[in-house]
Amino acid sequence: MKRKFALLAAGVTLASSLPVAAQEHQKRPNFLVIVADDLGYSDIGAFGGEIDTPNLDALAARGLKLTGFHTAPTCSPTRSMLLTGLDHHEAGLGNMAEVIAPNQVGKPGHEGYLRADTASIAELLEAGGYRTHYSGKWHLGLTPAQDPHARGFQTSFALLQGGHNHFGRDVAQKPGDKGWSYTQNGQQLTSLPPGFYSSDYFASQLVGQLKAGKKGADGGKPFFAYLAFTAPHFPLQAPPEVIAKYKGRYDSGYDVLREQRLKRQQQLGLLKPGVVPHVTDLSARWDTLTPDEKARETRRMEVYAAMVDGLDKGVGQVIQALKDTGEYDNTVILFLADNGAEGSVLSEPSMGMLNAVYARADNRIENIGAATSYEYLGPGWASAATAPSWRVKAFESEGGTRVVSFVTGPDVRQGVGTAYTNVMDVVPTVLDLAHVDNPGSRFAGRAVTPIRGLSWAGWLGGKSDRVYPADKPVGDELFGGRSLRQGDWKLVDLGDGRAWRLFDLAADPGETTDLSDKEPARKAQLVAAWDAYAKQVGVVLPDPRQTIVDRPVRR
After folding, report:
1. N or C: which end of the chain has fewer CB atoms below 10 A?
2. Is 395 left (phi over 0), alpha (psi -120 to 50) or beta?
3. Which residues of 375-401 are buried (b: 16+ CB within 10 A; e: fewer)?
4. Cβ-contact 29, 433 below 8 angstroms
5. What 3-state DSSP class applies to 435?
6. Which of 93, 34, 427, 30 is nearest to 228 (CA)?
7. d(C-alpha 42, C-alpha 414), whole Å
8. CB 548 within 8 A of CB 99
9. Burial class of residue 303 (count of CB atoms within 10 Å of its CB; 0-12, 13-18, 19+)
10. Considering the entire predicted model, what is its pTM?
11. Structural domain boundaries of the chain?
């Protein structure tokens, strides 16, 4: 095994050291990872939604839908886990860079960018003989040393911050300028082209990278490609002709939409009949809204649907490129959202600097969706998209961390995979499928934190029925919210002053019934396991607990 990795690290593929007949048998797969930003669990058709997503639906139909896939509650922590196979506290994103609490400043694991003592999946695969390509949102550091091009991606087009105007307004001209920063192969751009729209451009950039790589000197190598959309993250913006497709579709409101999607999930075999969904506790009932409030809400959802529609078309561009270059059948494709649906209200004080941005925008109902608007989805629609789960993005409950995901490609079975899986597992899974050794504690002459996630390789092929042993605990923390999963049991603290609650997710996936009083010994054991986890990864609870998860509850 050591000899194999030495060959791979030197840029020699395992297959190149084998006879020709064996090379064909050992052909290594390509990988395409697609990340949607704040996409709801049931937004795409394959998971119960009514939005037009034919490309994603077709991919999901030929592969394995992951109904137990989990992430961190927000974007940059999840992305750090996806790229390193680590807990986000180990990777440097113990908190988002934008909201690091005063007592977390300077603490290891809370740097707000991807730490140097991590090995990214791109670095590992590049050393293992893969071409590596990147397009989209980075959100893991702003300096040249933190750019995707410096972390193993041979070609890259990146938005360095966590979000931007989807039509590309106010681009920074140079490092340190106000505005949003884009880089290409590590070099900062001073402008974006006319007609820029995020989903279209991110997809076309990756298509260009893939086609150029296929024609280049390394065209015979397999590739790892990462496409990171900023859709449908706020601000809600989309081309007017796409928005028009959804005019009137959501006039019945988010309560009706929630019930429709729950029913559709059951029909698709994604949700067992009889599951009790969690009661929505973040938004007012639709029938209590005024006509003006309903008009604004429906327009928001129409634009949001258009953004998801556009994301799907971008995916279609990339899939067609794989087919055109003959790579489609040998490509493992993983699709995921980075967290639960976004339920924030941008005018609430807890949203900080976004209050002023929202106030300055032209948010007249008729202008929502334009480049000059800055609107959000809101808790009503977000709660509909995460049902039957509890709450939304930023919460450690299932609604914030159980996300839409599927995987398809060579040796991946079809159907529904219900086992618990975690975004940390992507790195070890890809390494297994690529026949590249796990680096352990050293890579490229430097010490690195060993990978924490587990490989799905056997599970994807149907050789096992679970990834995580029933007794293995998996913890998390963000914004002072805490959780621990062990088998079907989940311990969760939303940071709302009620402390720990205990749920049996096998019987109660909606987290509706706290079993703390009935299972005190189990609860105590899981609390101890969380304490051990927190010490191991270096959790620093924010002091005081951050108000970003303390949204006012409307009933």
Report:
1. N
2. beta
3. bbbbbbbbbbbbbbbbbbbbbbbbbbb
4. yes
5. coil
6. 34
7. 19
8. yes
9. buried
10. 0.94
11. 2-549
Q: Give the span between the Cα atoms of 309 and 245, in whole angstroms.
A: 10
Please report how the helices 291-324 and 254-267 are oriented relative to each other, as an axis angle in degrees rounded to 10.
Answer: 40
Cα angle vertex 168, ends 371, 250, to 5°? 40
515: nearest Cα among 502, 499, 528:
502
Residue by residue, pLDDT tens for the chain (555 residues) are 333 333 333 333 333 333 333 333 358 999 999 999 999 999 999 999 999 999 999 999 999 999 999 999 999 999 999 999 999 999 999 999 999 999 999 999 999 999 999 999 999 999 999 999 999 999 999 999 999 999 999 999 999 999 999 999 989 877 777 789 999 999 999 999 999 999 999 999 999 999 999 999 999 999 999 999 999 999 999 999 999 999 999 999 999 999 999 999 999 999 999 999 999 889 999 999 999 999 999 999 999 999 999 999 999 999 999 999 999 999 999 999 999 999 999 988 888 889 988 989 999 999 999 999 999 999 999 999 999 999 999 999 999 999 999 999 999 999 999 999 999 999 999 999 999 999 999 999 999 999 999 999 999 999 999 999 999 999 999 999 999 999 999 999 998 877 899 999 999 999 999 999 999 999 999 999 999 999 999 999 998 755 444 433 332
Q: Is 139 a catalytic residue?
A: yes
Judge contact between 419 and 465, C-beta under 8 A.
yes
Q: Which of 70, 75, 110, 133 is catalytic?
A: 75
For the chain, the 3-state helix, strand and coil shares in percent, each to the nearest 5, are 35, 15, 50
Active-site option among 70, 133, 139, 233: 139
How far apart (Å, rounded) are the C-alpha atoms in residues 169 and 18?
52
* DSSP symbols for 139-175: -S-SSGGGSGGGGT-SEEEEE-SS---TT--SB-SST
Q: How far apart are CA 452 and CA 231, in angstroms?
A: 29
CATH topology of domain 2-549: Alkaline Phosphatase, subunit A (3.40.720)
Give the other-Cβ count within 10 Å of 217's Cβ: 7
Number of H helices, E strands in the chain: 16, 18
379-386 helix and 291-324 helix, angle to the nearest 10 degrees: 50
Task: Specify the DSSP class assigned to residue 237.
Answer: B
Q: 3-state class of 369 per DSSP?
A: strand
DSSP per residue, 55-123: HHHHHHHTSEEETTEE--SSHHHHHHHHHHSS-HHHHT-SS-GGG--GGGTT-TT-SSS--TTS--HHH
For the record, the structure tokens of 410 come out as 């060579």
Q: Name the token pair of 308.
A: 């998801």
**What long-range pairs does 399-402 form, CB within 8 A, spacing at least 24?**
399/278, 399/340, 399/341, 400/73, 400/339, 400/340, 401/70, 401/71, 401/72, 401/73, 401/339, 401/340, 401/476, 401/483, 402/41, 402/68, 402/69, 402/70, 402/340
CA 397 to chain centre: 16
